[in-house]
Design brief:
Blueprint (H helix, E strand, L loop, with lengths): L2 H21 L4 H14 L4 H29 L5 H24 L2 H21 L12 H18 L4 H10 L4 H27 L9 E2 L2 E2 H22 L4 H24 L1
Antiparallel strand pairs: 1-2
Helix pairs in contact: 1-2, 1-3, 1-9, 2-3, 3-8, 3-9, 4-6, 4-8, 5-10, 7-8
Length: about 270
Amino acid sequence: MDISLIIALLALGAAVGFAAGLLGIGGGMLLVPFMTMLLTAKHFPREHIVHMAIATSLATIMFTSISSVRAHHARGAVLWRVVRLLAPGILIGSWIGPWIGAQLNATALAMSFAIFVAFSATQMLLDKKPAPGRDFPGPGGMLAAGGGIGTLAGLVGAGGGFVSVPFMTWCNVKIHNAVATSAALGFPIALAGTLSNIYFGMKTPGLPEGALGFIYLPALLVISIASVMTAPLGAKVAHQLPVASLKKVFALLLYSLAGYMLFKAFR
C-alpha cells in the first residue's frame, strides 16, 4: 500500500471516527462512498470495489463502536435495555445482509446503498413527531426490528444508525439517547457482518492481495487506528449540539453520500 493511500485512509479514518461518535452511525455511511472512490482511483478490480468498501467499512465499526460507546456511556446516554432487546435480531440480520450483498453485482449493491440511505435521511429531515404514547414493541417486535436493522446494516456496510436512530426516535427516545444506543448496537452488527463477509468472500475469485474475504485488511488497520482516536471527540460534540441541529447534520450527510453512490451505480 503506497504512502498516498495510507495518508488518505488516515484522514478518512479520523473523519469516520468523529462521525461515529457524533451521529451514532458507525461511520459506515461516510466510509463506504469514500473508500469506493479510493479503491477506484487505485484501480482495484471494478467488480469487487463496492463489495470490499462495504465489508471493510463494517469491520472498522467493531473498533469505532467500542471507542464511541465508552464516551456515550460515561454520560449515561446508552439505553442498555434497548440494546439487549435488539441485539439477538441484529446478530441474525447482520449475517444475512452480507449474504444478500454477495448475490448482487456492484451496480445493484450501490443502488441499494443509495436508496436505503436517502430514505433514512428523508425520515430524519421530516422530523415527524411520534405519537405521545408510542413505546417500543414487545419482545417479538423488537426481535423483528433488530433483524431488519441488522440485515440492512450488513447489506450496506453501516453501523445501523441510519435505521436504528429513526426507529428509536419514532418510539419517543430522545435523539441524544438514540445516537448513543445506536453506537452500542454497532458492535454486534459489525461482528456478525464481518464474519459473514469473510465467509462468503472467501468463495469469490479474483480478490486483490491483502483481502480476507471481502475485507481489505491494510485499509481496516489504518482506518481503525485513526477512527478510535477521534470517536470520543465526536461523542463529546454530540452532547453539546441542540437536537434540531443534530438531526439536520445527520440527514444532509446521508443525502450527499446517497447521491454519490447513485452516481457510482450508473457510471
